Amino acid sequence: MKDCELSNFSTIPAHWKIQKLKTILTLRSERNSGDRELLSVYLDRGVISYSDSTGMQVHKPSQDLSNYQNVHIGDFVLNNQQAWRGSVGVSKYDGIISPAYFVYHLSQECYPRYMNYLFRDFSMVQQYETSSRGVGTIQRNIFAPWLLNCWTIIPPYDEQVKIANHLDSKCTEIDALIVDIQTQIDTLEQYKRSVITETVTKGLNHNVVMKDSGIVWIGKVPAKWRVENAKYHFTQRQERATKEMVQLTASQKYGVVTQAEYMELTGARVVVVQKDFDILKKVCAGDFVIHMRSFQGGLEYSTKTGSISSAYVMLIPKESIAEPRYYRWFFKSSAYIDALSSTSNLVRDGQAMRWANFIQLPITIPPADEQTQIANFLDAKCAEIDSIIASKKAQLETLDAYKKSLIFEYVTGKKEVPETVTVVSINPHVPLLAMVVDMLKKPRGEVVDQKLLYLCDVYLGLGLSTQYYRWDYGPFDKQLYSYIDTLVSNGWYKVNIQNKAKVLVRAENHAEALKMYGNQLAQNKSDIEKLVQYFGEMRVSEIERFATLFAVWNDFIIDGIPAPSDYQIIDDVLTNWGPTKGRFSRDTWQNTLLKMKRDGIIPKGLGLHTLPKPEGGKSDA
User: Fold this and answer.
1) CA distance 375 to 241
2) Which domains does the chain have, with CATH numbers?
3) What per-residue confidence (pLDDT) applies to 561?
4) pTM for the full model?
């Protein structure tokens, strides 16, 4: 280990590099090319599809998306105003995002999944904060020159892959526990809501005679209960506040608390009135408060006296209300909240309910002794449920802290990924790729590896049922990088950078790979070896032409045209496989096609028909 002289990372492995972000980031700045998925960046999730952000959206996208910018798979995306809080991520999607965001292309020495963990780790988020400018605790704009001068760490590529794979596995386990505990919490909260509604509308004695309340949302109630309009049992408090009164606020989660308490509990700031105190209203202990979100969470019961927003409505219980604690629960029941919300079709998030809404609804009036019994029962029962929920939430906090700690320790090299990795299931492309790499006289890189995989699969008829796409450099399998990940994560190969190309070379556990493909591909070894020897010494551009022509010809046969003309094949290449094919002349394509026929590289219509390159698809292979 070595001290990297940066407190963010502390010590890192001695062979890891320390670089400034500007050495690995290139600003993308591509305008929306059309028909691409809308993306967003969230604090706790990174880059996600906007369609997956339902319920979390704060800002709606513009109706005109023409000025939005392209994002490619593997790009680093930062929310300009929220990066300092950790609203960043490396994209798993091709899409578009707001022009206000920063989108950077990562250099070839970066493995995107590892960089996603690193860039979202607190060691990096601290630097985004110091690279941001602004006033306040909500929005600070990141300043690009400062950002690009931030430091990052770059492990060898194969180690990045191992770390990412290991963290994927560990984080999946942790996330599964988190989902399970959150489900338990949701179930407990639903149970609590049902207990409250059932008890305040049906009572505690299920053997009593019931009667129809005449109110749909209340249903049947005990025969001795009364159902009457709320206006006969509550009045409005109209008094104005005075300067010496403590300023209060009302919330669904914390009830009526002082503004100082609210800011401490939430970390948010609220507007404190400094003059003209008579614009505030007085609230007294024992009042019920209708506030801006009562249509979502019911009424709040105040245990404090002070001043509060004039937008709120204070309700004073009359003497007929024997036990205010009963109504504290009644006004929090799901049945009442739903009914209150339905009193106006104009209710929107942030709009206060009024006295006029309140008096549209009836309330139940049990005998005084029952009100007290119900209040005592719900006080105890809900406290019990809340205690269990609190313990579950504490478990979530512990798991979240553990997950963050685990990520930090691995992305900064303080923990080493275990060398022994159990392989449960191997995609058949993986041993084929391993065999092809070993048969090549020297490493050739991803472009050659992909084209040889394709020709082995389709020309030799291995029956792998692979879907290939018409990519810039020939037929391309979008799962290629997952095959490479498997080879690297098991220690069979490692990725080196040679002449700006990523090549696979043998690693410490290579003997296991020999055994794997030796068992699975023994019957095909001779044919694969002949094919690799034929293409292995060709230039990359020539292999590209062979694979592309073969794919086009094979598609014609699949389409029921067994003998397409040379002109048809070459025309299809130049028309349907992208503009990069135009860098070769028709004569060059014709010569390659003649060589294919001369050497017997003739397709038989095997495998799947190639599909057009996905919009915005990008790959070096």
Assistant:
1) 31
2) 2-155 (3.90.220.20), 226-365 (3.90.220.20), 429-612 (no CATH)
3) 87
4) 0.62
